[in-house]
Design the sequence.
């Protein structure tokens, strides 16, 4: 059964998720039919959906920590695009909506970071989302705090959440990712302690600015794909805190 949500000149159709998950998942097509003004003769167009996943750990204990910036990015997109995350499916909190006329499925895996793939793999299969339309957003220690990097593909970089996702996508690495810089642990600080630490006020301001910029990067990617704007975005991010 399809459930429809209307917006100005647009109607989203997607499978209604059963209250109880079926014993065997059946693939469904998440699609959008956009009804344009009469001068376009009511032309209907179907777009390939995007599965947008933020990595993090569930629970108040981890809220606001460095390792959870992926969740914060999803929350920012949810707010900006008016997508409500109010459904549990495949061990993830999800919400369905659109960016422009392109359907998006936002997801926050709830099985803890190291098992994120247990959500991403089944969701991608259920909604028949191709690898090139799975956008993974997560913390990256190799980038300075608040610096973003948009990539069309890559490895896991020893990030356990990304490693889990790749494992549940049959080892595939050809999916986009938005890396959110959190910097490196100072001195000899334990890496785990650093990841589970909250940001300082200055660092949080940088992260807040990065989340706003991340929303714009998402919109550009979903509507236009990877192009020269993506390279320009990465270059601007790389040097945005350099002086002189």
Sequence:
């Amino acid at each position: 059964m399809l459930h429809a949500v209307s917006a100005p000149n647009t109607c989203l159709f997607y499978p209604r998720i059963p209250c109880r998950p079926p014993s065997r998942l059946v693939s469904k097509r998440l699609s959008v039919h956009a009804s344009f003004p009469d001068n376009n003769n009511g032309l209907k167009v179907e777009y390939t959906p995007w599965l947008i996943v933020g990595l993090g750990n569930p629970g108040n204990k981890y809220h606001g920590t460095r390792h959870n910036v992926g969740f914060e990015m999803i929350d920012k997109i949810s707010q900006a695009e008016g997508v409500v995350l109010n459904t549990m499916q495949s061990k993830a909190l999800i919400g369905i909506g659109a960016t422009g006329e392109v359907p998006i499925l936002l997801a926050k895996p709830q099985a803890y970071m190291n098992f994120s793939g247990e959500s991403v793999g089944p969701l991608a299969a259920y909604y028949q989302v191709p690898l090139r339309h799975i956008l993974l957003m997560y913390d990256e220690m190799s980038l300075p705090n608040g610096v973003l990097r948009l990539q069309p593909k890559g490895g896991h970089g020893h990030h356990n959440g990304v490693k889990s996702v790749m494992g549940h996508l049959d080892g595939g690495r050809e999916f986009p990712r938005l890396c959110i810089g959190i910097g490196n642990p100072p001195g000899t600080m334990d890496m785990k302690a650093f990841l589970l630490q909250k940001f300082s006020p200055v660092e949080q301001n940088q992260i807040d600015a990065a989340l706003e910029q991340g929303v714009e990067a998402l919109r550009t990617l979903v509507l236009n794909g990877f192009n020269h704007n993506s390279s320009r975005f990465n270059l601007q991010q790389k040097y945005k805190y350099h002086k002189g």
Notes: The chain is about 30% helix and 25% strand. The helical segments are 69-81, 117-126, 160-167, 191-195, 201-224, 228-238. Residues 100 and 223 are 7 Å apart (CA to CA).
